[in-house]
Amino acid sequence: MMLELQEKVAELENWKDGKGLIICGAGNTFCSGSDLNTVKAIPNSQDGMNMCMFMQNTLTRLMRLPLISVALIQGKAIGGGAELTTACDFRLMTPGSEIRFVHKHMGLVPGWGGAARLVRIVGSGAALRLLSGALKVDPERALRLGLSEETLLSPEESGSLEEARAWLSQYTEGPASVIQAAKQVVTAGRELPLEDALRTEKDIFGTVWGGPANLQALVRRPKHK
Predict the structure, then answer these.
(1) Does the structure show a pLDDT above 70 at 225?
(2) Residue 91 backbone zone (phi > 0: left; psi -120 to 50: alpha; other: beta)
(3) What is the rounded CA–CA span in Å between residue 87 and residue 63?
(4) CA distances for 196 relative to 65, 182, 188, 219, angstroms
């Protein structure tokens, strides 16, 4: 699955007309984390570090995609699955679902970038409580923490996916070039020092100013309500 995820991320990096992305699991389970047989097969530190670096790279690339990404959490997002949710821009949860960083019970800490991203999402205090307590985060708690944007109505796979598509569509309406640019300036603002972020924002602004979407908008002369 790790290899397949990397391949999909590489495909998405070349999706020129893309605007949004929903990541969901099959069979009403988001992702149950590491396969214990795989973990047992790589018991030494160096092999573990190699896996860690591989997944850090994949999830960082996922996070930096110029697409607005949503993790649709049905059922359980456990361990590495919980880390995967943090690589998306937003998280939506279905009734009865949960996010849980269970690494402590495996004698570990997150290694795929999940801890660093979690701190940015919920703050250091809440992140420490979730990691050190291996706490179960249900939809209500996730909303309070700011870990989830919304609890969907449908617990079923097909219904919740349609809800997630409708939720995402409010942020992906419009030309792909503009949606991608918006994601890129936010990514720069989050990850770069201020001066570098300002320079990147200027450069991205230059790619859309006078572009087709900008010119069409000027012709329409939209009224802002």
Answers:
(1) no
(2) beta
(3) 5
(4) 19, 16, 8, 33
Calpha distance 21→165 (Å, rounded): 9
Burial (Cβ within 10 Å: 0-12, 13-18, ≥19) of residue 84: buried
What is the length of the chain?
A: 225
Q: Quick: pLDDT tens for 119-144.
A: 999 999 999 999 999 999 999 999 99
pTM comes to 0.92
d(CA 34, CA 95): 24
Nearest-10 crossing angle of helices 194-208, 176-191: 170
Q: Give the mean pLDDT of 83-104.
A: 97
Distance CA 75, CA 103 (A): 18
Q: State the number of CA atoms in the 13 A half-sphere of 95 facing the CB.
A: 5
Three-class SS state of 48:
helix
Among residues 98, 114, 134, 100, the alpha carbon closest in space to that of 55 is found at 114
- pLDDT tens digit string along 55-88? 999 999 999 999 999 999 999 999 999 999 999 9
Can you read off the two tokens belonging to residue 59? 């999830």
Residue 200 and residue 166: Cα distance in Å, rounded?
31
